[in-house]
């Protein structure tokens, strides 16, 4: 296997995935291949499919919790990082950092993706999870996504990507995203730079600094999905609460708020803790294990359910 894989990129064996996740958590992958080039990546995927081998696509590892046992199979780390601006279209390889896509679009005088300056990880990961911030979402700008699907390279129009809040068809199928094209708008002023700076300042103020994490653990809760009884219960529990009024106006109940209101801020398991600064972040205090984080996740879900009757769902991928 090792020798065959070398035909497609740099290969490591028994590679600790903690080295490749922003959480700095995760056991070893049997094989770890760095794919820097689209053609090699497609050839590798075809070969692995032909062999019936298990594989996992790793972007920036910023939305992942890898279990302590690691991954039995081939982890493919996407590093195809090209990014091209053509008029108001920006096309980036799936392995290009989302921050870099945002930077290049702002530099080219385009508007619509400024919020991307604060989102870690790759554009492939952002498309799959419909990443978003400051009211913007990746899916709003995607005009087409090039994917590897059952041996073929296929272009999927943005309208067929099934984007919803932190969702896309790519979370439900086996497509590997190879590149994405964003359709942005020309902007005559310097608003882009200002918006990007505001976004970064806001994040520094509200998110924990100096600890490894994987961003928000849970999705916010769509208020339209709540039963009338639960909505009433929350409104009765917090009649004067300005946050609650804002959430109801925006249509999403903040998972961080629910976690804080359930008394979980600061809760610890081993070397993992629910951040004191942002209830939806779990921070790695040093040598946290995936087991520590998983036990905090379970406790948090239980507490929120007991207090509000709401089953919060993970935003992160757990492998
Ligand atoms: C400090 C911090 C702040 C964050 N803030 C935000 C935020 O504001 N908004 C937000 O939405 N997210 C945020 N996140 C989460 C994360 O940055 C995003 O979800 C990001 O888009 C994940 O991209 P990635 O490349 O790191 O994906 P990874 O973590 O590498 O992978 C996540 C999942 O996507 C799959 N995947 C990755 N690339 C591909 C591909 N090319 N084809 C098919 N599947 C693929 C993987 O297999 C995995 O299942 C934050 C994370 C951190 C650490």
TrEMBL record:
UniProt name for this protein: UDP-N-acetylenolpyruvoylglucosamine reductase
Naturally occurring in which organism (per UniProt): Candidatus Magasanikbacteria bacterium GW2011_GWA2_56_11
Top-level EC class: oxidoreductase
Recorded GO MF terms: FAD binding; UDP-N-acetylmuramate dehydrogenase activity
Keyword Cell wall biogenesis/degradation found: yes
UniProt function note: Cell wall formation.
Cofactor(s) annotated in UniProt: FAD
Keywords carried by this UniProt record: Cell cycle, Cell division, Cell shape, Cell wall biogenesis/degradation, Cytoplasm, FAD, Flavoprotein, NADP, Oxidoreductase, Peptidoglycan synthesis
Source species taxonomy: Bacteria, Candidatus Magasanikiibacteriota
Catalytic activity: UDP-N-acetyl-alpha-D-muramate + NADP(+) = UDP-N-acetyl-3-O-(1-carboxyvinyl)-alpha-D-glucosamine + NADPH + H(+)
Active site residues of this protein: 166, 216, 315
SUPFAM superfamilies: FAD-binding/transporter-associated domain-like, Uridine diphospho-N-Acetylenolpyruvylglucosamine reductase, MurB, C-terminal domain
Pfam families assigned to the protein according to its UniProt record, in alphabetical order: FAD_binding_4, MurB_C
InterPro entries in the record: FAD-bd_PCMH, FAD-bd_PCMH-like_sf, FAD-bd_PCMH_sub1, FAD-bd_PCMH_sub2, MurB, MurB_C, MurB_C_sf, Oxid_FAD_bind_N
Compartments (UniProt record): Cytoplasm
């Amino acid at each position: 296997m090792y020798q065959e894989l070398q035909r497609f990129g740099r290969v490591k064996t028994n590679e600790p995935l903690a080295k490749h996740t922003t959480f700095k958590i995760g056991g070893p992958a049997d094989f770890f291949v760095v794919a820097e080039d689209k053609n090699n990546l497609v050839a590798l995927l075809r070969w692995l499919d032909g062999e019936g081998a298990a594989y996992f696509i790793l972007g920036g590892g910023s939305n992942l919790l890898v279990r302590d046992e690691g991954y039995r199979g081939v982890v493919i780390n996407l590093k195809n990082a090209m990014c091209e601006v053509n008029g108001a279209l920006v096309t980036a390889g799936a392995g290009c950092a989302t921050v870099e896509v945002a930077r290049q679009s702002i530099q080219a005088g385009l508007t619509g993706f400024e919020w991307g300056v604060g989102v870690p990880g790759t554009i492939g990961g952002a498309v799959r999870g419909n990443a978003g911030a400051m009211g913007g979402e990746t899916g709003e700008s995607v005009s087409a996504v090039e994917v590897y699907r059952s041996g073929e390279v296929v272009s999927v129009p943005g309208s067929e990507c099934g984007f919803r809040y932190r969702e896309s068809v790519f979370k439900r199928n086996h497509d590997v995203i190879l590149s994405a094209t964003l359709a942005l708008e020309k902007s005559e002023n310097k608003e882009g730079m200002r918006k990007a700076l505001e976004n970064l300042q806001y994040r520094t103020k509200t998110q924990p600094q100096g600890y490894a994490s994987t961003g928000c653990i849970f999705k916010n809760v769509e208020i339209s999905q709540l039963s009338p009884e639960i909505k009433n219960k929350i409104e009765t529990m917090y009649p004067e609460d300005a946050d609650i009024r804002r959430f109801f106006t925006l249509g999403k109940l903040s998972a961080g708020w629910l976690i804080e209101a359930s008394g979980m801020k600061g809760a610890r398991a081993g070397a993992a803790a629910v951040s004191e600064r942002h209830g939806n972040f779990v921070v790695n205090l040093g040598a946290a294990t995936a087991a520590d984080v998983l036990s905090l996740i379970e406790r948090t879900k239980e507490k929120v359910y007991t207090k509000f009757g709401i089953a919060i769902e993970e935003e992160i991928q757990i492998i």
